[in-house]
Amino acid sequence: MILFRSRTSTPLAEPPAVAAVTRLQLDPAPTAMVWVQPGQKHECIAVPTVSLAPGDALVAIELATICGSDVHTTQGHRSAPTPLVLGHEQVGRVVAVGVGAVTSTGEPLDVGERVVWSLTLGCDSCDTCLRGLPQKCETVRKYGHERLEAGWELSGGFASHAHLRRGTAIVPVSRVLPAAVLAPVSCGTATAVAALDAASTITPLDGAVVIVFGAGLIGLTASALATDRGARVIVVDPARRRRTLASRFGAAATVDPTLKTGDPGSLEAAIDGIGTRPLVAIEASGSVLAVASAIDCLGTGGVAVLIGSVSPSAAVPIDPEAIVRGLITIRGVHNYAPRHLEEAARFVEARHDAYPFADLVGATVALGDLDDGIEAAAGGGAVRIGVSPSLEPVGSRTQTG
Fold it and tell me: The pTM is what?
């Protein structure tokens, strides 16, 4: 049980119109796992006092999941400002709110609500935000990606609590749905929704053939979303177990990309089996070969949505004449807008019985065993590994004979 004392104070020198800051002293103190550099274990810090500015909220994290980007950062494959608290996929319950805290739809945010929240935090006033791209705000800040700073130590998901800043899209979710279904919503699930949204602005999904490259969390969710919208989906992934999962997420066919053209089970064979060229390709793996295939496989007027290419890679050659004559569109999707997070939450709430989202999270480790969890995630056995602040670390458990 967490106890805290709150004290709302307004400096005497400030005019009455200035909203108060709510200062919380929690017992036990919230903790966060801080990453410093590759090869070094996370360090645990305590944060006994949290100051909530107007519009802020404090959430007790129920479950976080380890995204592939967290693994890549700890391996040194992605640059990151250090020290920092990683983690950006999580679900939790609101334990305190600052003055005027609201949900993504503008409703008052209440203590006790179970919520997920956006990866990015925008200003809502710059040119990019006003164009409807808050995830690319000119002063964007990202949970699980920012250098540790005094007053915002609880800025990532690998912690007991998260300090949500004003302007974060906070979405209330089901109080009874398994945490494993909800935790990935704020990254992989919402990004898949954004990808299908980008595709549907070019061509209707109902009746279309959609090819998804990569059967990770984004790819599997995109398969389910597209299937629900009336598409026939082909999922491409070299791992047999991932292809088997794809069949459970609505894929009409699966493809091993290591097979040669003309071989049974190849991409061309799968397309021939469906009988029409795909109009949508979702590239969620980041593979250079997959990017090229996503563009090359499209029929007239098709769209390739690129999601997986989030780190430097080799250039991908394209045929400009084929792009022009085929009326091909190439779209890039990185992160998502609040509406995508809202739709992602409603989708898993409505369709968790139809698609096995809970099965995507394998083992769950204690927060103190985060490094073991990241090592397991790097092994690729499960789509996601869970991290629970309520579990006792393995090293601290009482040994019995």
Answer: 0.92
